[in-house]
Amino acid sequence: MDKGIVLVTGGSRGIGAAIARLAAARGYGVLINYNSNATAAAAVCASIAAQGGRADMVAGDVSVEADVDAMFAAADRMGTLAGLVNNAGVVDVAARVEDFDLKRLQRMFAINVFGTVLCAGRAVRRMSRRHGGQGGAIVNITSAAAKLGAPGNYVDYAAAKGAIDSFTVGLALEVAGEGIRVNGVRPGIIDTDIHASGGDPQRAARMAADLPMPRAGTAEEVAEAVLWLLSDAASYSTGTVIDVTGGRGIAP
After folding, report:
1. pTM of the predicted protein model
2. Res 214: pLDDT
3. Is 237 exposed, middle or buried (0-12, 13-18, 19+ CB in 10 A)?
4. Is 157 annotated as catalytic?
5. What value does the mean pLDDT of the chain take?
6. What does the DSSP assignment read for 119-142?
7. Can you tell me the distance from the alpha carbon of 2 to that of 28, in angstroms, rounded to the nearest whole number?
């Protein structure tokens, strides 16, 4: 049975790659968006094909509107869009708020917030019964930082992810009657290379012992939550965010 196409933004590495592989294993065609690392995206596509799945890749910066349109045009060529996973995101090196400059903030919000909203809007145009679509599901990847604030590290990233939490609820209510479910997944300390891009490659290992479940999570554990929200098993769930944090950030 053809389940349709799932577009995974930032799907060439880490959590995005795990989501793409699991989506393919669950019977979706997968379109992997990447920004610059074509080699990594091709490797994910090859691993999916080796398991009998269907995948393609498309370059694009989610903060550039023309690139977003090109990504969704590529999805249209593959088939009917059934799901969007807004996974593309960035962090920056640890800094205090008084040391932020506008260039850092523009990058942080352009990719983490504006890109998510742009992609969601294009998905709604295709999925909404109001526009003649067949429905679908959107999953936004947020972060435990949205609740914890990330003081002394990246308050700007936390603020951007807080915006995604609010956007998830607002969009879910806006399109609930149009056949689209919108949910989020809030990862905690996950063992991926995003920590290296923030200048602290050992962060997950260093923090693991102090977590309620004393280990870092895996990208595959996050992917399982995402695929549940994409699936019919979550047919009555919208506007919710699932914590995949090992207990981090949960109020006592």
Report:
1. 0.94
2. 82
3. middle
4. yes
5. 94
6. HHHHHHHHH-GGGT---EEEEEE-
7. 7
Residue whose entry in the numeric block shows the structure tokens 């009555």 = 236
The residue from 28, 34, 154, 157 that is catalytic is 157
pLDDT of residue 194: 62
Number of Cβ within 10 Å of residue 163's Cβ equals 18
Q: Which residue has the tokens 């914890």?
A: 148
Task: Select from 3.20.20.10, 3.40.50.720, 3.30.1330.10, 3.50.50.60 the CATH code of 5-244.
Answer: 3.40.50.720
Confirm if 108 and 160 have CB atoms less than 8 A apart. yes
**What pLDDT shows up at residue 213?**
75
User: SS3 of 55, please?
Assistant: strand
Q: Give per-residue pLDDT as tens, 80-138.
A: 999 999 999 999 999 999 999 999 999 999 999 999 999 999 999 999 999 999 999 99
Strands 241-244 and 5-8: unpaired
Which residues contact residue 103 at a Cβ distance below 8 angstroms, ignoring those fewer than 6 apart? none
